[in-house]
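Q: Given only this backbone (351 positions), what sequence would you predict?
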């Protein structure tokens, strides 16, 4: 159920009973979703800063092959968080001072096809982790920080302009609804004394972004077309606009939330404040490989259009700027270029 290269050879029950006296260490982090985009960047950051890092991954999953992470020194625990007992036991075993909860069913599109599975991992597993963290805080009287990966999708198809922490929560997808639930539950546990930070993350990308997401699909597809391995890219609504940031910047924002000395926790919108269309992303992707005349290389397939989708999404991260001193460092064009170049480099290496 839980495997760690560094764990002693005791039964789980014995190990947990031995942990009754364990106290959370503020420099010990548990990162769920450590093989995912954000979890891997955050873990690398924590390891570089000398933290003891424990990472939970879903057994059978793997890291990005396009840009693999270096997790040397991390204690890795195979744990399917849908097993709420295993999730709670993992928290009790590690007794972390900080939990970065980044695991989740992260695709809005897929949540329409698998709403129940999305709810199990996003809503139920998060509940188990919050409650286990609260248990550690209650037992020891020590501060436990919980950074919850909330999402801009909690705001749904709003036309409220630039969205911030005061924007009404009104999700418009199963994914958004699960994130809204954990966002609100996080605030409930915060009121009980757990230092919960809801990171209201707008879209953020990197070479580690999966190809099931439109940005990863574009980067991968453009590289394949540039190499002459494919003729076309098939996309849905190219007019949709998103506020796209650089994933390591967003990991940095969550790190800053965790190391604040404030005991209470807070909600933070993390966004760049600028939106671009999917069309802009495609154009920037083809520009990265020197193709200006790209329209004939893209076909529109209505099968890729979501049932309900916000047309524009821009966040206002003024609160994060003021309280965390956070600001994005990588601009849109550079993000797209980095992604396409990584896919190009990976294919060259594979030859
Ligand atoms: P990601 O790359 O998809 O990583 C999520 C990780 O969670 C994956 O490694 C996934 O493993 C793991 N996971 C899923 N179900 C699990 C389970 N039952 N038990 C254990 N692990 C499980 O997503 P990300 O981009 O890093 O995003 C991190 C978090 O931020 C997610 O909660 C996401 O919803 C949220 N968020 C992301 C964005 C964004 O633009 N990236 C925006 C807003 C919010 P598998 O690969 O095996 O599923």
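A: Predicted residues:
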């Amino acid at each position: 159920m839980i495997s760690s290269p560094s764990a002693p050879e005791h039964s789980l029950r014995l190990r947990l009973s031995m942990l009754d006296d364990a106290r959370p260490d503020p420099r010990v982090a548990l990162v769920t979703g450590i093989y995912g985009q954000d979890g891997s960047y955050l873990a690398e950051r924590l390891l570089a800063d000398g933290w003891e890092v424990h990472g939970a991954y879903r057994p059978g999953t793997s890291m990005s092959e396009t840009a693999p992470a270096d997790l040397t020194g991390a204690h890795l625990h195979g744990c399917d968080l849908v097993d709420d007992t295993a999730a709670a036991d993992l928290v009790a075993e590690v007794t972390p001072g900080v939990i970065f909860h980044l695991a989740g069913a992260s695709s809005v599109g897929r949540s329409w096809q698998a709403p129940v599975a999305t709810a199990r991992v996003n809503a139920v597993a998060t509940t188990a982790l919050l409650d286990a963290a609260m248990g550690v805080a209650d037992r020891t009287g020590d501060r436990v920080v919980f950074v919850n990966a909330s999402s801009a999708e909690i705001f749904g198809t709003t036309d409220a302009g630039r969205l911030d922490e005061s924007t009404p929560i009104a999700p418009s997808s199963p994914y958004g609804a699960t994130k809204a639930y954990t966002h609100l539950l996080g605030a409930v546990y915060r009121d009980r004394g757990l230092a919960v930070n809801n990171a209201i993350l707008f879209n953020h990308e990197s070479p580690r972004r999966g190809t099931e997401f439109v940005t990863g699909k574009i980067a991968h597809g453009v590289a394949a077309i540039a190499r002459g391995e494919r003729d076309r890219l098939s996309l849905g609504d190219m007019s949709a606009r998103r506020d796209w940031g650089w994933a390591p910047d967003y990991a940095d924002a969550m790190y800053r939330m965790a190391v604040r000395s404030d005991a209470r926790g807070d909600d933070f919108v993390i966004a760049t404040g600028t939106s671009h269309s999917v069309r802009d992303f495609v154009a920037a992707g083809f520009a990265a490989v020197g193709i200006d005349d790209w329209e004939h290389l893209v076909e529109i397939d209505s099968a890729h259009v979501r049932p309900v989708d916000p047309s524009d999404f821009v966040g206002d991260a003024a609160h994060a700027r003021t309280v965390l001193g956070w600001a994005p460092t990588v601009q849109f064009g550079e993000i797209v270029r980095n992604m396409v170049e990584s896919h190009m480099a990976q294919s060259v290496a594979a030859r």
